Backbone:
């Protein structure tokens, strides 16, 4: 029996478990929240090497513990709507600055240039000059901020699709159907990208949410991978796609039925109003569902 005992050297590592709620590993046989490795074996011949192996194993578990805790914190930060949270407040400021820059360079300046320059310079030159701020914004986003801005691309396409319709048709009603085509393209893009992991809304909102900052982009991507959030974004994509599809149909009906003396004003007002209304709905839905997730998370934590 003595020879058998000395021949068989049992190395026993206590089983650990991962607690998904706290984001930490815990020893099943220990009250300590930190992971631990307990070696029950005869003292090895090379004691320093043995101790080093134990320390390395303990360090590996600690790193895993920190990694999973970081994932939990990222999810909590996404749900965090506390206005006193400095990190969340800073992210909101970055988003507002990026949004203001986008609206100015990719919408307000181009629209103003288009209508101001059309009479003195003509339609073609007014279209080309009004697209320059948007193209500069695209180059800045692509090569400086290293991100893709689909809103800018939509605006450029809108300018040149409108130019194409106005040069191709002499009938004013047919010219104004360019707005219908643009809304249809946006709706089709939203529907098609539902099949992909990174949907059209991902590329549409990331520049506004991150301002092109690399660290903010990493946080945005981490939040995007949360399954509950991905489901919310999928629903928003479907809702916005339906909204733009309905907008295209209503716009076509208005263009073909309203009197010519009011159709120009109605065309501009309807296109801008529909886009704003759809965007407001998307934001409202996102906030509503996010608050529901916060409440459910609080209920689960209270129950435990």
Residues:
């Amino acid at each position: 029996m003595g020879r058998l005992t000395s021949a068989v050297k049992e190395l026993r590592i206590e089983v650990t478990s991962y607690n998904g709620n706290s984001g930490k590993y815990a020893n099943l046989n220990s009250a300590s929240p930190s992971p631990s490795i307990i070696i029950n074996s005869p003292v090895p011949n090379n004691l320093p090497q043995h101790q080093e192996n134990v320390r390395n194993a303990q360090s590996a578990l600690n790193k895993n513990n920190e990694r999973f805790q970081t994932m939990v914190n990222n999810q909590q930060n996404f749900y965090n709507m506390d206005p006193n949270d400095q990190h969340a407040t800073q992210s909101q400021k970055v988003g507002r600055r990026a949004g203001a820059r986008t609206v100015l360079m990719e919408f307000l300046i181009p629209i103003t240039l288009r209508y101001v320059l059309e009479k003195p310079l003509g339609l073609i030159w007014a279209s080309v000059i009004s697209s320059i701020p948007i193209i500069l914004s695209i180059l800045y986003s692509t090569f400086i901020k290293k991100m893709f801005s689909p809103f800018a691309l939509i605006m450029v396409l809108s300018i040149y699709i409108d130019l194409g319709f106005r040069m191709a048709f002499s009938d004013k009603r047919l010219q104004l159907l360019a707005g219908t085509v643009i809304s249809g393209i946006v709706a089709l893009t939203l529907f098609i990208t539902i099949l992909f992991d990174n949907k059209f809304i991902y590329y549409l909102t990331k520049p506004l949410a991150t301002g092109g900052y690399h660290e903010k982009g990493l946080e945005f991507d981490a939040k995007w991978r949360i399954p509950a959030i991905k489901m919310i974004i999928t629903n928003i994509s479907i809702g916005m796609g339906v909204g733009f599809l309905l907008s295209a149909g209503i716009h076509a009906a208005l263009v073909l039925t309203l009197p010519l003396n009011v159709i120009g004003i109605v065309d501009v007002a309807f296109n801008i109003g529909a886009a704003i209304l759809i965007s407001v709905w998307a934001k409202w839905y996102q906030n509503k569902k996010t608050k529901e997730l916060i409440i459910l998370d609080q209920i689960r934590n209270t129950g435990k």
Notes: Confidence is low (pLDDT under 50) at residues 1-41, 67-72, 74-85. The radius of gyration is 29 Å. The CA atoms of residues 251 and 270 lie 7 Å apart.
